[in-house]
Amino acid sequence: MNWGRLAAAVLLGTALLAGEPAAAADTVSRVVLDDDFSGARGDAPGTGTWTVDGGAERAWQDGSGRLVLGSPMRTAKTFRQAYGRAEARVWMNRADEAWRALGVLDASGRTPAGEVEILDSSPVGGDFHTYAIDWTPTTITWSIDGRAVQRFTPAEKVPYAVVLGLGSGDRRSSGMLVDRVTVSVRVKVVPWRAFTGYRAGQHVEYDEEVYRVREPHTSLPGWQPTLVPALFTRI
Questions:
Q1: What confidence tens digit (pLDDT) does each residue in 135-152 have?
Q2: pTM, to two decimals
Q3: Which of 10, 41, 123, 206 qualifies as a FRET site for 62, CA 20 to 30 Å off?
Q4: How open is the CA angle 70-75-76, to the nearest 5 degrees?
């Protein structure tokens, strides 16, 4: 008997049962929300994407690719990724702080606690401007047309919802038109392959798409993310 071959076969079988560890991860940026408000005139924003304070009648699409916003509107889901960017092209009827145009709320709909640093207080005129938020594990930075204007250091790391049209006092918007909103996140991904052990919450790439692992498992041939939705969610 060839004991060397037998030992190799035993080791291979053990590896297949246990699952090889996933390959080294690469960081990629993925767009997880992109709304250009191209619905028919009078249509409310998508209820699966947005929640409007005061009801859907407080926000409507004008039929030419813009949203008329009369109350704060936030994303229906929160974003847990450590790195991300939200961007919106917005017109407001008066100069205002960047966070009123585009801001963040915690999962309970509250403004997160933390420290604010003003970087540039130059006002903007009553025209369309691109407002953006870049967040990291430690800071959130606002910019207008690429100019950083405010930095926020949250007291704790929590998932964020993106909100448009926050006002003061009763939190009513000052009146806004929104041309487009996009949210992208940075995630670490590993390629999908058979006989590999994956952890819940891990991200894998298959056929140029990224999926989040829903349940820990060792993959088998035929368990590609497109074929086993119980194990993977496409992001």
A1: 999 999 999 999 999 999
A2: 0.76
A3: 123
A4: 115
The residue among 203, 177, 181 whose CA lies nearest residue 192 is 203
pLDDT, tens only, 22-81: 566 788 888 899 999 999 999 999 989 999 988 888 899 999 999 999 889 999 999 988
Statement: residue 3 has pLDDT above 50: no
3-class DSSP state of 119 = coil
Residue 189, φ and ψ in degrees, nearest 5: -125, 150
Query: Rounded to the nearest 5°, which phi and psi values hold at 122?
Result: -65, 130
Q: What is the number of other CB atoms lying within 10 angstroms of the CB of residue 57?
A: 10
Closest residue by Cα to residue 102 from 78, 57, 66, 134? 134
CA atoms within 13 A on the CB side of 59: 28
CB under 8 Å to 170, separation ≥6 — which residues?
none
Distance CA 197, CA 168 (A): 50
- 182 near 100, Cβ under 8 Å? no
| Distance linking the first and last C-alpha atoms of the chain | 51
Could you tell me where the beta strands, DSSP code E, fall in 9-109? 20-21, 26-35, 50-52, 59-61, 67-69, 73-75, 83-92, 102-105
Sign of torsion over alpha carbons 155, 140, 116, 164: negative
